[in-house]
Amino acid sequence: MGLDVVLMRVTQQGTSQKRWQRRQLAMVIDEGDVFARKFRESDKAMLSRADPYRDLILSPAEMDQFTEEVESLLAGADETEAHRIHQVMELVGRCRGDPSTELHLQGD
């Protein structure tokens, strides 16, 4: 019931989403279901949309809000959780800086 965080490159061939191709660039695996638990317990709008049973796709335009909400999780995080949150923040920074990417929160 984890919630892996995946940075994807989107290649658009034409306007139809059927022809879009996605390629994985990087991933942070949710070992111990840390993200699934922390996101579910959060009262933040975007984090609470994450579902450990479905995928949520975020665009670079959503990274500012996502950054703010994920950083708020650091306050109550232990060392392992904080390390994983920082790994996610690295992917967020890459997504924010590249309009051809998406951040996928992948449920099991």
Uncertain segments are none
Beta-strand share of residues: 25-35%
| Count of DSSP H/I helices | 4
The proportion of residues forming helix, as a percent range, comes to 25-40%
Largest sheet: 4 strands, antiparallel
Provide the CATH architecture: 2-Layer Sandwich
Order of helices and strands: EEHHEHHE
* CATH fold category name: Alpha-Beta Plaits
Shape type: globular
Report on the architecture of this protein.
With 108 residues, this protein is of the alpha+beta class. The protein has one domain: Alpha-Beta Plaits (2-Layer Sandwich). It contains four helices and four strands, in the order ββααβααβ. It has a four-stranded antiparallel beta sheet with strand order 2-1-4-3. Helix 3 (63-71) runs antiparallel to helix 4 (79-96). It starts with a strand and ends with a strand.
Give the helix/strand layout.
Layout: E1 3-11, E2 21-28, H1 34-41, H2 45-49, E3 55-58, H3 63-71, H4 79-96, E4 101-107
Antiparallel strand pairs: 1-2, 1-4, 3-4
Helix pairs in contact: 3-4
